[in-house]
Amino acid sequence: MSSFSELMAFQRRTEALNQTSQRLAWDQETVMPRGATAQRAEEMEAMEAVLHARRTDPRMGDWIEKASLENLTEVESANLRLLKRKFSRNSKIPADLAEALARETSLGQGIWAEARSREDFAGFAPTLEKVIQLRREEGEAMAQGEDGMGNAYDALVQDYETGATAESLGAMFDAMRPRLVALLDKVKGSSHQPKKLNGTFTPDDQMKFAHVLAERFGYDFNYGRIDKAVHPFSLGSGQEARITTRTVENDPFNCFYSTIHEVGHACYELGIDDQHLLTPLGRGISMGVHESQSRIYENQIGRSRAFTSWMYGAVREMFGDIGVENAEEFYATVNRVNDGYIRTEADELQYNLHVLLRFDLEQKLISGELAVADLPDAWNERFEADFGFAVTKPSQGCMQDVHWSVGLFGYFPTYSLGTVYSGNLNKAMRADLPDLDASLEKGDTSPATGWLRENLHQYGGLRDPRETITHACGFEPSEAPLMDYLEDKFSDIYKL
């Protein structure tokens, strides 16, 4: 066997073990009995010990060095590039630190969920402090060396978006903020305000409709399933990608659009070419690119005038009178700009302001500039300044998201980066599919999802994140297409 073949055979087993570890995480957040938290943390620690040992096995370094001298194809070279990058980063992390992180973040998810249900930030704070300290140590370790980043936070960002830094992300977000704020002010000042939904939406009926929506967007239940979780998420790749959603009795859009969002993630994973199964290329290349898929499914397709025209009839058929008289009113209601605390429930216009708040605060938490004890006040002060009303309890504020409890520092900016990418993809897709709306009006999303599968999904990790978007769109991504889209859409809805 060539060195590359030996490397890939070894890595295939590592990928399979990682999929098994992910199933444990899915189980913990969906159906695991609460009393199993401590044991599950030990199980996750044990799995991480095995995985970290494989990811840092000295033989990998030898195989990578020798394979780089071999005559490789484009796909083989891309696999080698990703493995070399990950081996370098993993080798900088001590085994005991990797295991401690697995244990504390597994515990942290359960402690966060319990404390959140009691509105008890003080009860959660010691766990958050432990997780932050461990992640800070990990970031500092990875930032060392020629291929490292300048600081711990930038090093952590690489786990989610290779090549991005706080500086580059901040510059993009700074360019977005003035246009977002100006448009939001106009919308809130408009005399034309869409109706609110009004009806009876039982959890069981919401879940039935969630399955309908998932199938409409091409989710194949032979390779996945929908369950409920406190915080919706998608998990898995290759031949199995599961999703979760949640139901709120007086707000069915929470369930419907969480489902579409997570289906976007799952379809990205399921759409990757089978030749990449259980290889480094066999999963989404970054969370920014991943979010571009969930956001374009949810918003530019799922909240479009054309698709909501079909959706209006389907919702009326299942739920009866919903307080909205026609498809045009329903489109406006779906896209209504609402005051709200929760990021996952935010309208398209305010969503990015939620993300930018978290991006700024988590940088300060990792650097040590912001103490955990001061987080609620810092969050509440920033939230009121950005949104104009006050947070009244932790579950509305700094305890609403699961991310920090499980150590996902550097993840939040990819939500806005992915939203920016979705604006670019939508522009390119619409240029290629001028008759797309005629299909969406029938509830047929296949031209759009097929375009995304053809131009982006199938390649998996073949190209780095920004190059992936450039290849799909045919032009370099920027925030301009997203902002143009938002200004056109909301000026129309709100008669600006």
TrEMBL record:
Transmembrane segments: none annotated. Coiled coil: none annotated. One of its GO terms (molecular function) is metallocarboxypeptidase activity. It is an enzyme of class 3 (hydrolase). InterPro entries: Peptidase_M32_Taq (IPR001333). One of its GO terms (biological process) is proteolysis. Keywords: Carboxypeptidase, Hydrolase, Metal-binding, Metalloprotease, Protease, Zinc. It holds the Pfam family Peptidase_M32. It catalyses: Release of a C-terminal amino acid with broad specificity, except for -Pro. Signal peptide: none annotated. PROSITE patterns: PEPTIDASE_M32. The keyword Transferase does not apply. The active site is at residue 262. Its EC number is 3.4.17.19. Zn(2+) binds at residues 261, 265, 291. The keyword Protease applies. Binds 1 zinc ion per subunit. Its cofactor is Zn(2+). Belongs to the peptidase M32 family. Broad specificity carboxypetidase that releases amino acids sequentially from the C-terminus, including neutral, aromatic, polar and basic residues. This is Metal-dependent carboxypeptidase. The lineage of its organism: Bacteria, Pseudomonadati, Pseudomonadota, Alphaproteobacteria, Rhodobacterales.
